Amino acid sequence: MHIELPDWALLGAVTTAVGLGVAKLLLSARSKAAAPDTLYYYFNANFTGRVEGPMLLLEDVGAPYTCSSAVNEPKEANPACFAPPFLKDGETFMSQSTAICFHLGIKHGVAGAPEKAGLMMRALGNAEDFWGEAYRPTKGGKDKEAGAAYATGERFTKWLVVLQGPLTSGGDYLFGSAPTSVDYHLLATLRAAQEMYPKAFGANLTDPQLSKLSQWMERMVARPKIAAFLKSDRCLPVLYPGVQGIA
């Protein structure tokens, strides 16, 4: 049976349908926005590794998140995910700590100025290169002498000078007056270096040429939410015992 509706009734029906559709979309978006991010890493091994950068970011912005050791889930969901840490944001799975930090920076409003994106990516890459270069000589703790030689060599200091580079512009943080995703990743990187080579790292940061980096690190760990996290049971060592305290 066909029923003719007057124009006003038809308009009302369409408006109601559209309104319900928009309401459903808004509720769906709100539900997705409220869902906490999930960080995947081997927390049962009692260290955080490269997931600490994303974790510091989420802690500092006050965003809820959960942790999972089911690292096969992201691999099965997205073949581009190779090794932890991983992030699950809604239906999106990501790997690579630098990419995760960059993604979370955009999501939580700490991405920094768009025109500085290239400079920030360079700083993220530098931090990642330094982390890998500082760790590899130890061969997972099997060659501590090689690790000590690296940490007491010129290249270790040179990297710290490079990582300090963005601070020469005079800002309190790497790219301005507030932290960006790069600050959190670099803090995690330096904490890893500090765990591996506490004496060498400490000696470098007392050098006047690295005063800006030293002051920046003090500023970062003093941020209330980061300070609270670092004192909490949720904050695990960055690295495992075999590569701690080498030099």
Automatic annotation (TrEMBL):
GO biological process: what's one of them?
glutathione metabolic process
List, for all copies, the residue spans of the domain called GST C-terminal: 113-241
Record GO terms (molecular function)? glutathione transferase activity
Fetch the PROSITE patterns from UniProt.
GST_CTER
Q: Name one Pfam family in it.
A: GST_C_3
Q: Which domain of life is it from?
A: Eukaryota
Cross-referenced PANTHER family: GLUTATHIONE S-TRANSFERASE (PTHR11571:SF263)
Protein name listed in UniProt: GST C-terminal domain-containing protein
Instruction: Report the source organism.
Output: Prymnesium polylepis
